[in-house]
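Quick illustration for those who missed Monday's session on complexes.
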Amino acid sequence: MRYFECYVCSDQSETKTCVRCTSRIRGALAALPEQFVWLTLSRQRAQGGGGDGRSSTRLHAPLPGREDTLNLLGPASRQSVTDARDQVGSVPFLETLAGWCEAVVYERGLTPIRRDLTAMIRLLTAHLSWICEQPWCPDFYEEIRDLLRTSQKITMTEPVRQMLKGVMCPSCSMASMVRYLPDVYAARCMNCDSIRLDEHDYRLLVERQVRDAQHAVNP
Ligand SMILES: [Zn+2]
Ligand SMILES: [Zn+2]
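Prediction with zinc ion bound:
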């Protein structure tokens, strides 16, 4: 078996991007449509209208903290960004996905697709195994993850962090294990980026530490 260094996390992997990183990307893609709906609702609230377009004159004065929403949902193209704050802000939601879709369509010789959220997510998910074999996969991963994180911050749906008290990291031996809800991992270490455990591995770790603790008390 030939081994690679995962493009994203540098762990040893049988695939160019490891199974964990691939599933994180798939999870992030799957979470984006819901975020888009939330963002759209936030914008409608910021506009103070029902989204019928007539209230768009209030766009120049959104409610505090809502500029980021407007920034993320539009403008439609990077070229039309004129405001200094917009330039340092997030790249618009659909623009980010459209850029990657164009790259996949071009490189794979596919029929171009509409700039439609569902169609774009479907395309990127359908070609995810191929994307994960490309050297630019880390850039894709970063942008999709940033898009998700920025959206989650605005919509206040960021994963909740729980400390896993009493469990030591198998690598650094610190009580620094946490669980995010939701997350594809059951546990990860706040110190060691490489320590990310699924449900099965986390259970084994706890069982081992319970055995060690019992042995220390009752040798
Ligand atoms: Zn990886
Ligand atoms: Zn650790």
